[in-house]
Design a protein that fits this description.
With 217 residues, the chain is mainly α. It is built from eight helices and no strands. It has one domain. Helix 1 runs antiparallel to helix 2, helix 3 runs antiparallel to helix 8 and helix 6 runs antiparallel to helix 7. InterPro entries: TMEM86B-like.
């Protein structure tokens, strides 16, 4: 289906190129402006891709989710953790609505997904060295983990959207770990970006492909 939408395909390819190249080059001596622009480009192209594919409300909702993620990613660099987290949290709330609107008809054994919520919140609360951060981190993680649980019980592919949502959770837990016990870990920045970018990519393509399939039925 991508081949019938060359503009969308090119935008997605450009997103992957930007995301992967930033992952490789992020530890270079980049100027702050270049670093923010390069980092933001990978995720900022995902809402454009989703928008080019959107044909109904669900298509525009995933576009909004990706746009709020891109905004949050840039705000983390320019305005700090709290402001960036608020943009991400808004995206998680929109995503929860999208996933609940598209619940799987047969949940089967997927009820385990909601065990992620207390586990992630507890881990996030314990991680920051600055204990004043802990309540805010836990509150944000509540929205984040609910988003992931709802993704897992949605009709969107587990191997794409579900896995991507779990990668997003792990990426943010590593951010909190960097404010705590793993502050000096050299590898953690690469892990955070890789999990986050590829998680968003999987979420977006999983939803978009499912909505495309619906139009072909």
């Amino acid at each position: 289906m991508e081949r019938k939408s060359p503009a969308a395909w090119l935008v997605l390819a450009a997103s992957v190129a930007a995301g992967v190249s930033y992952w490789i080059a992020r530890d270079l001596a980049l100027t702050p402006t270049l670093a923010v622009a390069w980092k933001g480009a990978g995720v900022a192209l995902l809402p454009l891709y989703a928008g080019l594919k959107a044909r109904n409300l669900d298509g525009w909702l995933i576009c909004l989710v990706m746009a709020l993620g891109a905004l949050g990613d840039v705000l983390l660099e320019t305005s700090g953790l709290t402001v960036g987290a608020l943009a991400f949290l808004a995206g998680h709330l929109v995503a929860i609505g999208l996933y609940l609107k598209n619940r799987a008809h047969r949940l089967g054994g997927r009820a385990w997904a909601f065990l992620i919520v207390p586990a992630a919140v507890a881990i996030a609360y314990l991680l920051p060295t600055d204990r004043a951060m802990a309540p805010g981190v836990a509150l944000y993680t509540l929205g984040l983990s609910l988003m992931a649980a709802c993704a897992l019980i949605s009709r969107f592919p587990l191997a794409l959207t579900g896995l991507g949502a779990l990668m997003f959770v792990l990426s943010d837990l590593l951010i909190f770990a960097r404010a705590g016990p793993w502050a000096q870990a050299a590898w953690i920045g690469l892990a955070i970006w890789g999990l986050y970018y590829f998680g968003q990519l999987l979420i977006c393509t999983g939803v978009v492909r499912t909505l495309q399939r619906d139009r072909r039925l």
